[in-house]
Amino acid sequence: MKTHQPIGILDSGVGGLSVLNEIRKTLPNESIIYFGDSAWCPYGSRDTDEIQRRVFAVTDFLLSKNCKLIVIACNSATIAAVEALRANYPVPFVGMEPGIKPAAAITQTGTVGVLATEASLAGEKFHRLVDDHGSSVTIITRPCPNFVELVESGDFDSPRARAIVEEEVLPLIAANADILVLGCSHFPFLRPLIEEVAGPKVTVMDTGMAVAHRVNHFIPGDIVAPPPSYEIFTSGDLSHLKKEFPILCPDLKASLYHADI
Ligand code: DGL
Fold first, then answer.
1. pLDDT tens-digit series, residues 168-191
2. CB 242 within 8 A of CB 154
3. Are residues 91 and 109 in the same domain?
4. Are residues 113 and 180 in the same domain?
5. pLDDT digit string (tens) for 51-65?
6. Is 179 helix (H, G, I), strand (E, B) or coil?
7. Which of 41, 144, 184, 249 is catalytic?
8. Is there a catalytic annotation at residue 184?
9. Is 2 a member of any domain?
10. Which residues line ligand 1 (CB under 6 A)?
């Protein structure tokens, strides 16, 4: 692996930029090529075959740009496709899954709420995760497709956003959850609102930083890299991305492009 090759990051849309922000903190010298498949967002309501087809197409695109490692910054795509990707491509893949294990380790009430997409919650890999790490606690799941739509449209704090967040979060608090797992890479962008609605006694967790540490594990640290560059591609509307990007990644200078794949 040579350090001048970029890291590739993919997601169904802009959500994976929450993971990009964590990766930049951990690996500030690494160049990154990000692909947000916004034309096909949401993945969360699609079936496994369809998600796999899209993720394979995006992977081909990232590999055509010489990426040395691919981060699947999307729980739905990881759950639906990471095993197939690893079986078909020679590069390392770092995926992400809802943080059931750390949540189960710290809950005081014994009840953990998981906010994720329908595809993630229905996936066999998610059920294995709950069986392996969540069997000693009560896990309550909530599919939140509306959260994805809020983030894709750039609505993080309107009265409508608050009403949607309350509708999903308050039942979990009423059921005594003291940990909320953000099981979708879009959701960290709603974190301030989720925390406000959940109240100070509830811990909100996401796995962006854990993914960044996992990526770090694959990157040799002893070679001096050239100054990093950041290229952000969307299959969706470039002018919308240009408006939203500075809000999602406020301190990042990047080149933004549209790509049809
Ligand atoms: N960001 C994605 C995830 O982590 C999925 C959002 C969607 O496209 O439904 O699951």
1. 999 999 999 999 999 999 999 999
2. no
3. no
4. yes
5. 999 999 999 999 999
6. strand
7. 184
8. yes
9. no
10. 11-13, 15, 41-44, 74-76, 117, 120, 148, 184-186
Q: What is the CATH number of the domain that holds 123?
A: 3.40.50.1860
Helix (H, G, I), strand (E, B) or coil at 101: helix
67, 74, 144, 249: the active-site residue: 74
Q: How far apart are CA 100 and CA 165, in angstroms?
A: 21
Q: Which domain holds residue 184?
A: 100-206
Token digits of residue 255: 């080149």
User: Both tokens of residue 241?
Assistant: 């991305």
Amino acid at 95: G
Span 186-226, pLDDT tens digits: 999 999 999 999 999 999 999 999 999 999 999 876 565 67
d(CA 211, CA 23): 8
> What domain count does the chain have?
2
Q: CA-CA-CA-CA torsion for 206, 212, 214, 218, nearest 10 degrees?
A: 170
One domain for residues 117 and 179:
yes
